[in-house]
Design goal:
Shape: rod-shaped
Oligomer: single chain
Radius of gyration: 41 Å
Strand order of the largest sheet: 2-1-3
Largest sheet: 3 strands, mixed
CATH topology of the largest domain: Helix Hairpins
Number of helices: 5
Strand content: under 5%
Order of helices and strands: HHHHEEHE
CATH class of the largest domain: Mainly Alpha
Number of strands: 3
Number of domains: 2
CATH architecture of the largest domain: Orthogonal Bundle
Structural class: mainly alpha
Length: 232
């Protein structure tokens, strides 16, 4: 294997490594929670918080309403007990019972409204949980697949790196220097094929004399783009 062939194989391997690393970065990003998943989780949390808040309010109103009802019942019991004979005291007690009745009516309306809000909030929470479960299921499938692909890519990268190390081990220092120089001039595509007398990098014609040297496997660069020419 000529030094040019070694360089060409190194370049191919480096291209594969570069592409696999790009894919690996994408695969790793897939393992993070998506914006959709984060939003769904936040929605479930907020709906649960709202249900809790409304349930607490419902309990507080129920206790307050029970207290008013108990107080009204005690007042009614006193009113009809026959123990109170003073007209003014009887009138005051009657006014108190009427006032308590109005407060109880308002409280019961508010309690009914809160109960309806609790039911609506619970429905919203149930819908949010169902949506979250669906999104999490889809995300988990993506996560599992990405983990498998990550393992495959890591294994492949290890093999490619080992192959490249072996190729570099048989590369002459001057060949490596020529390769690095070509990469500085032309980027990652430093070694190109010579096909039908044309450089496949810049597509310009190479002299027949230089073409023969390329076919012999010697280190030759294109006069135009500076890339190393490899026989096809």
């Amino acid at each position: 294997m000529s030094q040019v062939d070694v360089l060409y194989r190194i370049q191919q391997t480096e291209d594969e490594i570069r592409e696999d690393k790009k894919r690996l970065a994408k695969v790793v990003r897939l393992q993070s929670a998506s914006v959709e998943l984060i939003n769904a989780r936040n929605l479930v949390a907020s709906t649960k918080s709202e249900v809790t808040r409304l349930r607490v309010k419902q309990i507080d109103l129920s206790l307050e309403n029970d207290g008013l009802c108990d107080k009204a019942k005690r007042s009614e019991d006193r009113l009809y007990s026959g123990l109170i004979t003073n007209p003014k005291e009887l009138a005051d007690l009657q006014h108190e019972i009427e006032s308590l009745g109005r407060r109880i009516a308002i409280m019961e309306d508010e309690l009914l409204e809160v109960m309806m809000s609790v039911e609506e909030a619970e429905n919203n929470q149930e819908a949010a949980v169902e949506t979250l479960n669906r999104i999490e299921s889809d995300w988990q499938e993506t996560f599992d697949r990405s983990k498998e692909e990550q393992a495959e890519l890591m294994e492949r990268l290890a093999i490619l790196t080992d192959q490249n190390n072996q190729l570099f081990a048989i590369l002459h220092p001057q060949s490596l220097q020529a390769y690095e120089d070509a990469k500085r001039r032309a980027g990652d595509l430093a070694v190109v094929a010579l096909k039908n007398g044309r450089c496949r990098g810049c597509l310009l014609t190479v002299s027949s004399t230089k073409g023969k040297v390329v076919d012999e496997g010697q280190m030759v660069t294109c006069d135009n783009c500076g890339r190393i020419l490899c026989p096809l």
